[in-house]
Amino acid sequence: MKKTHDHIGIAVRDIDEALNFYVKILGGEVEHRYTSEAPGVEVHVAAVRVDGELIELLQPTSNTSPVARFMRQKGKGVHHVAYRVDDLDKAIEEAEQQGIRFLKDTYRTNQLGRRLIYLNPISTEGTIVEFCDYPDQSF
Predict the structure, then answer these.
(1) Are 127 and 81 in contact (CB under 8 A)?
(2) Could you give the CA distance from residue 101 to residue 50 in angstroms, rounded to a whole number?
(3) pLDDT, tens digit, 9 for 90 and up, residues 46-59
C-alpha cells in the first residue's frame, strides 16, 4: 500500500511561543487548533502549514500525557513522523504481516476525523511513526 508523508508532530513546551516561530519566521499559516483531553492523548494541538507541508505542534496538557513523557525523556522537538495511507486497517494488517508491531492503545479517531495509530518504535529504529487515513475526506 502506498504511504505518503502527511505531517510532522513537534513536542513543545508553549504552543503560542512555538507558533510565533512557525508563523512569523517560517511564514506558516495556522490551519486549526484544538485540545484533546482524551485519556492517553492530553494535548493542545496547533496545525501549521508551511510551504505546503503540515506541522503539528503538540503541547501536553498533563504530566501523564504521552507527549509530556516524551519530553521528559528526550526533550522538546520532533515527536513523530506521520504517513497517510488509503485504508488504515488494511495498512496495519499488511505491516503486521511483515513483522511490524503497533502501539494498539494509540488507535483512535481524532477530533478532525483522522484515524491514526502509532507504530512501535522497536519496529522503526526508534522513531515514532504514525499511520493515518481520512475516511470522510477526499484528497
Answers:
(1) yes
(2) 31
(3) 999 999 999 999 99
Q: Please report, for residues 46, 57, 60, 139, the alpha-carbon distance to residue 35 in angstroms, rounded to integers and kept in the order given.
A: 9, 11, 9, 25
**Mean pLDDT for the stretch of residues 108-127:** 94
At 33, list the grid cell.
487548533
SS3 125: coil
Give every strand in the sheet of 77-85, ordered side by side: 29-36, 43-50, 53-60, 3-11, 77-85, 129-133, 115-119, 102-109
For residue 139, the model assigns a pLDDT of 47
Q: Is 135 left (phi over 0), alpha (psi -120 to 50) or beta?
A: alpha
Phi-psi region of 93 (alpha: psi -120 to 50; beta: other; left: phi over 0): alpha
User: Which contiguous run of DSSP H or E holds residue 71?
Assistant: helix 66-74
Give the DSSP letter of residue 123: G
For 16-27, how does the pLDDT look when each residue is reduced to its tens digit (9 = 90+)?
A: 999 999 999 999
